[in-house]
TrEMBL record:
<keyword id="KW-0963">Cytoplasm</keyword>
<dbReference type="GO" id="GO:0009117">
    <property type="term" value="P:nucleotide metabolic process"/>
</dbReference>
<keyword id="KW-0378">Hydrolase</keyword>
<dbReference type="InterPro" id="IPR003697">
    <property type="entry name" value="Maf-like"/>
</dbReference>
<dbReference type="GO" id="GO:0005737">
    <property type="term" value="C:cytoplasm"/>
</dbReference>
<dbReference type="Pfam" id="PF02545">
    <property type="entry name" value="Maf"/>
</dbReference>
<feature type="site" description="Important for substrate specificity">
    <location>
        <position position="26"/>
    </location>
</feature>
<dbReference type="InterPro" id="IPR029001">
    <property type="entry name" value="ITPase-like_fam"/>
</dbReference>
<comment type="function">
    <text>Nucleoside triphosphate pyrophosphatase that hydrolyzes dTTP and UTP. May have a dual role in cell division arrest and in preventing the incorporation of modified nucleotides into cellular nucleic acids.</text>
</comment>
<feature type="site" description="Important for substrate specificity">
    <location>
        <position position="83"/>
    </location>
</feature>
<dbReference type="GO" id="GO:0036221">
    <property type="term" value="F:UTP diphosphatase activity"/>
</dbReference>
<feature type="active site" description="Proton acceptor">
    <location>
        <position position="82"/>
    </location>
</feature>
<feature type="site" description="Important for substrate specificity">
    <location>
        <position position="165"/>
    </location>
</feature>
<protein>
    <recommendedName>
        <fullName>dTTP/UTP pyrophosphatase</fullName>
        <ecNumber>3.6.1.9</ecNumber>
    </recommendedName>
</protein>
<comment type="similarity">
    <text>Belongs to the Maf family. YhdE subfamily.</text>
</comment>
<dbReference type="GO" id="GO:0036218">
    <property type="term" value="F:dTTP diphosphatase activity"/>
</dbReference>
<keyword id="KW-0546">Nucleotide metabolism</keyword>
Amino acid sequence: MGRGTVLATEVVAGGREVILASGSPRRRELLGNLGVPFRVLVSGEAEDSPERDPERLAGELAGLKARAVARQHPQTVVIAADTVVATGGELLGKPEDEAENAAFLHRLSGQTHQVYTGVTVIVAGQETGGVERTDVTFRSLTDAEIHHYARTGEGLDKAGGYGIQALGMALVARVDGDYSNVVGFPLGLVIRLLRGAGVTVWGE
Ligand SMILES: Cc1cn([C@H]2C[C@H](O)[C@@H](COP(=O)(O)OP(=O)(O)OP(=O)(O)O)O2)c(=O)[nH]c1=O
């Protein structure tokens, strides 16, 4: 996507305008639920980091996404997020294809893994951020279940190769922590950071 591409204009009502620096439809929907006026702008700059610690990586990538847009819009509140899935020291990104998605699900089957989402908010050069962690435990999956799910393609655009908010919920036995964090936008943290940047959320 081109630099500075406007993807969509969402609710832009009164109050302080917010830019969501994310192409993720999940983040758009969840931020919309907060009643915050915002529009979506994605920098298109590649985010990369040599960091291998999942918690620090999530925070770092969220910062890179936010800064890339904030440079062009210094007076607007910019919010970005990044989700990283980690299992036993290994990082699982978005699977390349059905076969890799099935391999990811084999890794996650019957195990507890960690989902980290970093959130960064920048306004007028002031940056704040945080990282939320949720532990997700998968059922022990049969090969048939794994291949059935991988074939749906639902996991292809998602870190870890599953979407807990859709059919992927059938893979999950237990969630410890903020559910919205697994979907990619930890609402408690988001609300705290936006309010800290002077944005009104639900009238406060
Ligand atoms: C584990 C999991 C991840 N995800 C999603 C959340 C994120 O959108 C995605 C992780 O990729 P990210 O790189 O965090 O985000 P993105 O590429 O979708 O969007 P952008 O970089 O423009 O902000 O995986 C789910 O929707 N459900 C899940 O259960």
